[in-house]
Request: fold
Amino acid sequence: MLDLKLIRNEADRVRAGLTAKGGADLDSILDLDRRMREILQDVEVQKAERNKSSEEIARRKKTGEDAGELLDRMKDLSERIKSKDAELKEVERDLGERMRWIPNLPHGSVPVGDASANREVRRWGELPGDGFRPKPHYEIGEELGLLDFGRASKISGSGFAVFTGWGARLQRALIQYFLDTGRDRNGFTEVSTPFIVRRDAMFGTGQIPKLEEDMYRTEPDDFFLIPTAEVSITNLWANEQLGHEELPLYRMGYSPCFRREAGTYGKETRGLVRVHQFDKVELVKIVEPETSYDELESLVKCVEELLQSLELPYRVLELATGDLSFAAAKCYDLEVWAHAERRWLEVSSCSNFEDFQARRMNLRYRNADKKLVYPHTLNGSGLALPRIIVALLENNQTDRGTVRVPDVLRPYLGGREELGA
Reply:
C-alpha cells in the first residue's frame, strides 16, 4: 500500500508512476483525502469550542449563574460533532477501500512500456541444435510412465497432472535439491507454512483484491488456497515490530500452489506449461530499505545458479512498467528454453516490493537510529517445478528415447543417469 502522505505531497510523481503501470483513479483519492482533512479540522474546532463551553458552564454553575443557553449550545455542538464523526468514518472507509486498489509504483530504473518493452539483461547456455527434434514433454512423459494427464483429468478436470513412478520421484528430487541449495549455498532458513490462509494474509502481499478471481477460495470460512508460499512466509511477521539486529531475514519454503488461471490460453492448456496446481520453492527476504536493490540482484543470482546447475539455457528479463505485478516495484523474470515447445518459459520471478507489502501487513522495524520504519520485502521462485520439468524432458532427450538426468540431480534419484532406460 502506498503512503497517503506520498500521494498527497508528490501527486504528479505518483500519477506518472501509476500511468506507466496501467493507470489508477488518483483524483478520487486526493478528493477524499482533502475532504477527510477538512472534516478533521472542522471537528477539532467544534470540540475545542465544546470544551470551552463546558468550562464556562462549570464556572457558572459554581457561581449560581444561569447556564441554560450554554447547555443548549453544548447539546447542539455535540450533535454536530456526532454527525461529523459519522461522515468522517464514511470518508475514511471509502478512502481506505480505494487505497486497496492502488498498485505499487515502479522503480525509476524500470523500462517504461508494455511487455514489448521488457529488456533482456543476459543469457546463459547454448540452445539445443536442430539435428534432433525432441517429442513434447507431455508425449515423452507419458511414454516413459512419468506423467498421466488422462487420470488427472478424470479426478480433477483439465489443468492438472499426475506424476507417476520416476516422474513423482523427479518432482520430489527437485524440491529437495532446491531446498538443500537454498540452505547450504545461500543462507536461507527453511520454514513449512500453511497452504490455506486468511483473507488478510492475501491482502498483505497484494494478491487481493485485484487478483481475487484467479484464487481458489473456500466457503463459508473465506479462506484461500495459497497461489505461492510468498503469502504465508512473508505474512509470518504481519503486525509485528522487528529489531534492527533481526534483519536481514532470509526464509524459504516448499508449497503446492493453487491458481484458477481464469481465461483461455490455447495450446497452453495441454501439458505442464499452465496448470492449476503446481509445486514450488519460494525464497523470501525482509531487509533494510538501503540494501534492498543489492538484495534483489543477489536473489536473481541464487536462481541463476540453480538453472546453471541444472544445465538449462535461460535468459533474464527486466520487466517493463506495464508488465509488473500489482505489488512489485521492480522485477526480473527468468525463462528457460524448452526445445520441443520452441520457446522461452518463465520459471521464476524475482521482485522487490520495497515497503508496499510491509505497509499492507503493518510490518515495521526499528532502524539503527531507533526510528520505527517499514522494511522492504522481496521474493523469488527458487524454483517453480512444472516448466523446469518441461525443459528437462524436452532438452535432455536421447536418440534412444530416454531422458538424461543432470549430474546434480543424480544423487537424489539413486544415482540414476537416465529416465526410461
